[in-house]
Amino acid sequence: MASTAELSPREQRLAEQRRALPDGPGVYLFRGSRRKVLYVGKAKSIRKRVGSHFSKPARRGVSEMLSQIETIDFVATQTEAEALLAEQNFIKRHRPRFNVRLRDDKSYPYIAISLDEDFPRVYFTRERHRRERVYFGPYSNAKRVRETLNLLGKVFQFRTCEGKTPGRKSGSPCLDYYIKRCQAPCVDYISKEEYRTSIDIIVRFLSGRYRQIERDLEDRMQAHSDAEEYEQAALFRNRLQAVRSLLERQRIANESVGTLDAIAVAVDGTDANAQVFQVRDGVLADRHSFYLENAAAREEAEVAEEFILQYYATSPAIPPQLIVPAGLEDSELLAELLAERRGAPVEVRHAERGDKRRIHELATRNAQLALDQDRLRTEHRRSQRIDALEGLRTELGMEAIPMRIECFDISNLGETHTVASMVVFEGGAPKKSDYRRFGIRDAAQDDFAAIGEVLARRMAQYEAQRERSPHERGYDESFASIPSLIVIDGGKGQLAAGVRELGAFRERGVTVVSLAKRIEEVFLPNAREPLRLPHDSAPLQLLQRVRDEAHRFAIEFHRGRRDAAMTRSVLDDLPGVGPSRKRLILEHFGSPERFLQASRDDLEAVPGLPGKVARDVHAHVHKAG
Fold first, then answer.
1. How much is the pLDDT for 105?
2. Whole-number Å distance between alpha carbons of 43 and 53
3. Domains contained in the chain, CATH given
4. How many whole angstroms separate alpha carbon 4 and alpha carbon 594?
């Protein structure tokens, strides 16, 4: 070990701070420049645990972390359980680079049930902030979530219409009723009590209480049969058969295995994958795959522990048993903490034999396969987008990350052919199927009036789509969607014009901003000064990508309309030029603008165009001005 005289000032400072650390439980924080938190850890003895970081041979990721530490802070606690809770709170607050990080749970899909409504809806969401609603998840695969919702809709026939009250203004059932996807509570074809019973069964299904569901459905089928209500009895028989068929397909063990989560982790350097196999009454209810950031290249047991804490901090359901990898040091502490959250005992252990070991081995193989596949690269890109969205949420003061962003831009040439574009980004990536174009109806208006007209039409389209079912002709999913964030290309004037037309959206929590191109200022309603974000920041770069895409899309539409108009007005009346020669001219110059700028020599050089015709065309164009 180097003598004190050989240590740098930074190393001397860290050595003094390490000697001052308490020999008791708590949390320690490694901070870098500007007091940025690099790593948060918990320990039975803070002094000994911190010392181990500096005394062990450092792996590549740990060595990088140690080289960046400027100060060491700590928070002493009474117990290890308190230290565990404090560690997770600090990780969630600071998102340290060198901790194992589960991607932001807001980006993962959930199934939500609106129990605050008389006739609850069961729907897909990526947000989880309304206390009066029940959420199931997080799930790792949006497609599987939608498949689950589709199955539940077929079996239990819940409503899909938006709003607190079911139905449309027409007062008649929508198409869902006629295709047996809804029992039409909007026209009292089902009572509130009967509808709520179906919702209760869905809650039990998503909670994994399968045997209870089977018994309930069987009892209700028998009760209706005994009362000679054979149509209702047949309905519950069909539901029972559908549920049993699903469970048999997914059964991977005997019912005696019970309810558990098998958690496996695979680690490869700074990459890691965690698999959660949710087994309910011997049925594989779901399988989730999560990619983890492991910048410090930590071992499998450390990664598993941090993942378990982060995952169950957001999961609304904790099973009575967790099957975890071998070597987990704090399994008893984890069990104590999870039991407190669950309100009932939780067992955390490694499986040595039997079906439980087989299930865990299956989860482990899946974790390793996930790392071996190209999906990891895609997930890295996705993580960067989510980080940008999270940064944007913070900068704009939004409650949730803006999963759907709509941007509007105006394109014109003087007072002619004014058009507008609407582009959509979902999850930080373009969703081109939702792009829309608008022709401005009053060609004499300015940009402020044009943006006002477009956003008024956007609102009108949203109101019109609310009256339609997704199965109806003319239904437009893009216009029916509510964005999280609307971006207007322009400054204060364009923002004011847009805000006037977006009252209904703003009441629903939609954030509206404008982005001025000159020095990339972000204007917010009711804010005196614009928001100036660093030019290299991910949130600003995301806004720029959205704005530039809207501009590109608007220009493309504008050029198409202008070229078509110019082609008709300029090329149709040229002397000696028919359809074939018109095509030659356009192919040679590429656009009507370049044709209008051509000299006589340029026209005479067009292959296949006679010299006399070229001279006549040049004289005609310049005579016409």
1. 47
2. 12
3. 4-99 (3.40.1440.10), 255-373 (3.30.420.10), 390-560 (3.30.420.340), 572-624 (1.10.150.20)
4. 76
Phi, psi of 386 (to 5 degrees): -65, -40
Q: What sign does the CA torsion over 224, 225, 227, 231 have?
A: positive
Q: Which helix (H) or strand (E) holds 444?
A: none
pLDDT in tens, 506-519: 998 999 999 987 78
Q: In whole angstroms, what is the distance from residue 220 CA to residue 204 CA? A: 16
Give every residue of the chain whose pLDDT is below 50, as ranges: 1, 105-106, 443-444, 625
Per-residue confidence (pLDDT) for residue 565, from 0 to 100: 54
Distances (CA, A) of 450 to 447, 561, 579: 5, 17, 36
DSSP string spanning 404-418? EEEEEEEEEETTEEE
275: CB partners within 8 A, 6+ apart: 262, 263, 264, 265, 287, 288, 289, 290, 363, 364, 366, 367, 370
Rg from Cα positions in the chain: 31
Q: With contact defined as beta carbons under 8 Å apart, do 98 and 91 qualify?
A: no
395, 531 in Cβ contact below 8 A? yes
* CA distance linking residue 445 with residue 568, whole number of Å: 24
Which residue in 180, 199, 185 sits closest to 471, CA to CA? 180
Cα-to-chain-centroid distance, residue 533: 23
At residue 130, what is the residue type? Answer: R
According to the model, what pLDDT value does residue 403 have? 92
- Which H, E and C letters describe 345-384, residue by residue? CCEEECCCCHHHHHHHHHHHHHHHHHHHCCHHHHHHHHHH
Cβ atoms of 284 and 265 within 8 Å: the answer is no
> How far is C-alpha 561 from the chain's CA centre?
35
Describe the crossing of helices 142-156 and 192-207 by its angle, rounded to 10 degrees: 140
Q: Count other C-beta atoms under 10 Å from residue 623's C-beta.
A: 7
For residue 536, what are the contacts with CB-CB under 8 A and spacing of at least 6? none
Structure tokens at 587: 């192919």
Question: How many angstroms separate the Cα of 141 from the Cα of each of 107, 247, 370, 371, 373?
Answer: 11, 20, 13, 16, 16
- Burial class of residue 174 in the structure, from the number of CB atoms within 10 Å of its CB (0-12 exposed, 13-18 middle, 19+ buried): buried
Cα dist. 483→15, 141, 502, 546 in Å?
52, 22, 12, 14
Give the model confidence (pLDDT) of 306-364 as tens digits. 898 888 876 767 889 999 998 887 788 888 888 888 888 999 999 888 888 888 998 99
DSSP codes joined into one string, 211-261: HHHHHHHHHHHHHHHHTT-HHHHHHHHHHHHHHHHHHHHHB-S-GGG-SEE
> How would you write 140-196 as a 3-class SS string?
CCHHHHHHHHHHHHHHHCCCCCCCCCCCCCCCCCCHHHHCCCCCCHHHCCCCHHHHH
CB 276 within 8 A of CB 307: no
Residue 226: is it exposed, middle or buried by C-beta count within 10 angstroms (0-12/13-18/19+)? exposed
3-state secondary structure string across 582-620? HHHHHHHHCCHHHHHCCCHHHHHCCCCCCHHHHHHHHHH
Alpha helices in 502-537 (DSSP H): 503-507
- Give the helix/strand (H/E) hosting 108: none
